[in-house]
C-alpha cells in the first residue's frame, strides 16, 4: 500500500467492514516493530511470560493479524491471579501500536521533510480499545503491567481477550513477581532530564497559552513524565533560547520590562505558575532555566516608553551584556529565595563555547552568588568545577574519568550524558530498534553516570500523530510521546531501562552492605555485558540478558 493512501484508507475502512475476516493473535516480543502489511504469517519469537519486582512495570506485545477482509478489532485485559492474590486488570494498560511515517538516520542538518524518503514504523501506542485491521495487515497490541508494590510474590496469570467480528481469541500470559520491591519513581536515583515544551501542547490542543485549560491539558503529559522518574523542570528566561529550532518555538516565562524611566522590572508570574504546576505533578528536584547564552544573541524585552517589543543585542564579555543580565540575576535570585527555590534552580546553557561560558559564569558569580549552573555540551575542564549539573554528548562522555565522577558525586554534583541527532546508537528515533531505548539507561550505568538528558519530550512536528519527520533531524528526534498524552514503544522501553538501572543499584548496595563479595562480583560481571560497541547488532540480546540476569539474583 502506498503511504500517501494509508491513512485515508484507514478512515474509509471504519465506514465499510465486511463480516468475513480471518483474524489471528499470537504472542510477539517487545523488541520488534511489526510491519503493517505483513498479513497473518509473520514469523516472530513469542514471549508471554516475564519476571518483575514489586513496583516494576513490564511490557508484552501481542501480534494481531488479519488475512481476510477488513475487520473491527477490540481488546480487553483480565485480572492476573495467583491463587487468591490479584493484580487488577486496571493495572494493565496499553493499546494497539499504530504506525507513523519515519525516515532513516541522516545526522544533523536542515533538509526537506521528504528528502530521505518515507516508511511506516510501529511506534504510537494508542489508548483506543478498538482498531480497524485492513485485509492482510497486522498490529502489535502493547501491554504494560504495573505490578503493585504491595502484591505478594508468586506467578500471576491473566489473559488478553481479542474480539473481531464476533470471534473471540483468548491469549494467556504470566508475570512472576519476585521478592524485591522497586521504590516509587520519585525516589529513583536515575537523573532523567527530558526537556518539556508547553508551547507545543497549547498549539496542538488549540488553547490559550498559560490559561487554566492549558494547564489542565498539560497535566497528563507531565504526570506521565513524572512516572518515568523525571527530575527536572524545564523553564525559559528568554524568548527563543534555541532560536526557534522546533515547530513550536519556546517563549520566555519571564516578562522583561524596561520602564519609561530606564529602570527594569521583571514579571515572574508565568514562571512561578509553571514551576508550581510541575512540582504538583511530582517533578521537583531541579529547575533548569534557559538561557543566558541563547543560540542567537538577541534578548527580547518590552519597552514601556514606545509600547513595543525590542531586542537587546549583546554577547558574553561585553559591558552591555553584563549590565543587561546583572539586574535580572539580582532580581531573580531574590525572587527564588523568597519562593524557597534558590537551591534547586540552575542557570542553564546548551552547547555553548568555553569563552562564552566563562564570561557568563563571571556575571552569575558577581550578581547572584551561590546560583547553580548547568550545561549540556562539550567537556571544558576550565569550568567543570563551576558546573553543578554537567551533561556531555555520548561522543565525548569518555572525558568523565572515574576520579572526576567520584569527586563530583562527593560534591553533590550531577554528571550525565545525552544523545541527539548526531548519534545513531543508542537513540530514540521512530525507526530505532526498541531495545536501544532501554540500552540508554544501561549505558549510563556502565559508565557510572548519574543519568541521561534528552532535549525533546514533546516538541512535536506539524502532524506528529501521523508524520514524525522534521526538517533538521532524523524522524522522531523531536518527541518521544504523542499528542493527547499517547505513549510510544520508545518511551515504554526507556522507562524499562531506567528500572533496571535502579534494580542494579539496589542489589549492589545490598550486596556490599552484607559483605557478599560473590554477589558483587556477579553484578560487576553482568554489567560488563553492556558494550556500546556492539549496540548496532546486539542491543536486544544485551538488554534482555541484563534484565534476566538481574531477575535471577
Portion of residues within helices: 25-40%
Please give the count of helices: 11
Distance between the termini: 48 Å
Q: What would the average pLDDT be, to the nearest integer?
A: 94
Give unreliable regions as ranges. Answer: 1-5, 7-20
Q: CATH homologous superfamily name of the largest domain?
A: Glycosidases
Count the beta strands: 25
What Rg is obtained from the alpha carbons, in whole angstroms?
Answer: 25 Å
Overall CATH class of the largest domain: Alpha Beta
Question: Could you say what the CATH architecture of the largest domain is?
Answer: Alpha-Beta Barrel
Structural class: alpha/beta
Summarize the structure in short.
The chain is of the alpha/beta class and 553 residues long. It folds into two domains: 3-181, Immunoglobulin-like; 185-247 and 268-291 and 317-496, Alpha-Beta Barrel (TIM Barrel). 29% of the residues lie in helices and 28% in strands.
Amino acid at each position: 500500500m502506498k503511504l500517501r493512501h494509508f491513512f485515508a484508507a484507514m478512515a474509509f475502512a471504519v465506514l465499510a467492514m465486511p463480516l468475513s475476516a480471518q483474524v489471528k493473535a499470537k504472542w510477539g516480543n517487545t523488541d520488534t516493530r511489526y510491519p503493517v502489511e505483513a498479513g497473518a504469517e509473520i514469523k516472530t519469537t513469542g514471549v508471554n511470560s516475564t519476571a518483575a519486582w514489586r513496583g516494576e512495570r513490564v511490557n508484552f506485545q501481542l501480534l494481531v493479524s488479519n488475512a481476510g477482509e477488513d475487520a473491527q478489532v477490540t481488546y480487553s485485559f483480565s485480572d492476573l491471579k495467583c491463587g487468591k492474590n490479584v493484580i487488577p486488570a486496571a493495572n494493565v494498560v496499553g493499546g494497539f501500536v499504530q504506525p507513523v511515517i519515519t525516515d532513516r538516520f541522516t545526522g544533523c542538518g536542515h533538509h526537506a521533510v521528504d528528502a530521505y524518503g518515507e516508511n511506516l514504523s510501529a511506534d504510537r501506542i494508542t489508548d483506543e480499545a478498538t482498531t480497524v485491521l485492513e485485509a492482510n495487515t497486522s498490529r502489535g497490541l502493547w501491554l504494560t503491567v504495573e505490578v503493585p508494590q504491595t502484591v505478594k510474590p508468586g506467578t500471576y496469570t491473566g489473559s488478553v481477550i481479542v474480539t473481531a467480528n464476533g470471534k473471540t481469541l483468548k491469549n494467556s500470559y504470566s508475570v512472576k513477581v519476585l521478592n524485591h520491591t522497586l521504590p516509587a519513581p520519585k525516589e529513583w536515583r536515575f537523573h532523567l532530564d527530558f526537556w518539556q515544551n508547553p508551547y507545543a501542547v497549547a498549539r496542538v490542543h488549540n488553547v490559550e497559552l498559560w490559561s487554566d485549560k492549558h494547564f489542565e491539558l498539560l497535566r497528563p503529559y507531565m504526570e506521565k513524565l513524572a512516572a518515568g522518574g523525571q527530575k527536572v523542570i524545564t523553564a525559559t528566561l528568554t524568548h527563543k533560547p534555541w532560536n526557534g529550532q522546533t515547530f513550536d518555538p519556546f517563549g520566555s516565562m519571564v516578562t522583561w520590562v524596561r520602564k519609561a524611566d530606564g529602570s527594569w522590572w521583571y514579571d515572574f508570574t508565568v514562571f512561578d505558575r509553571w514551576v508550581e504546576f510541575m512540582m504538583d505533578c511530582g517533578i521537583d528536584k531541579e529547575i533548569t532555566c534557559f538561557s543566558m547564552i541563547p543560540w542567537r544573541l538577541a534578548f527580547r524585552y518590552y519597552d514601556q516608553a514606545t509600547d513595543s517589543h525590542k531586542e537587546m543585542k549583546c554577547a558574553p564579555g561585553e559591558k552591555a551584556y553584563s549590565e543587561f543580565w546583572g539586574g535580572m540575576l539580582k532580581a531573580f535570585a531574590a525572587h527564588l529565595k523568597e519562593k524557597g527555590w534558590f537551591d534547586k534552580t540552575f542557570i542553564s546553557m546548551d552547547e555553548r563555547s568555553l569563552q562564552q561560558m566563562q564570561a557568563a559564569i563571571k556575571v552569575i558569580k558577581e550578581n547572584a552568588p551561590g546560583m547553580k549552573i548547568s550545561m549540556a555540551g562539550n567537556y571544558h575542564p576550565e569550568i567543570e568545577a563551576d558546573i553543578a549539573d554537567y551533561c556531555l554528548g555520548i561522543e565525548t562522555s569518555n572525558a568523565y574519568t572515574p576520579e572526576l565522577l567520584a569527586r563530583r558525586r562527593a560534591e553533590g554534583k550531577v554528571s550525565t550524558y545525552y544523545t541527539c541527532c548526531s548519534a545513531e546508537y543508542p537513540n530514540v528515533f521512530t525507526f530505532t530498534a526498541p531495545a536501544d531505548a532501554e540500552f540508554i539507561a544501561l549505558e549510563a550505568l556502565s559508565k557510572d553516570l548519574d543519568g541521561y538528558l534528552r532535549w525533546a519530550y514533546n516538541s512535536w512536528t506539524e502532524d506528529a500523530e501521523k508524520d514524525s519527520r522534521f526538517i533538521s533531524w532524523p524522524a522522531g528526534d523531536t518527541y518521544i510521546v504523542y499528542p493527547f498524552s499517547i505513549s510510544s514503544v520508545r518511551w515504554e522501553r526507556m522507562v524499562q531501562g531506567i528500572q533496571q538501572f535502579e534494580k542494579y543499584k539496589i542489589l549492589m548496595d545490598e550486596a556490599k552492605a552484607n559483605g557478599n563479595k560473590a554477589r558483587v562480583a556477579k553484578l560487576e560481571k553482568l554489567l560488563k555485558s553492556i558494550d556500546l560497541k556492539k549496540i548496532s547488532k546486539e542491543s536486544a540480546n544485551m538488554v534482555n540478558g541484563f534484565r534476566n540476569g538481574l531477575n535471577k539474583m
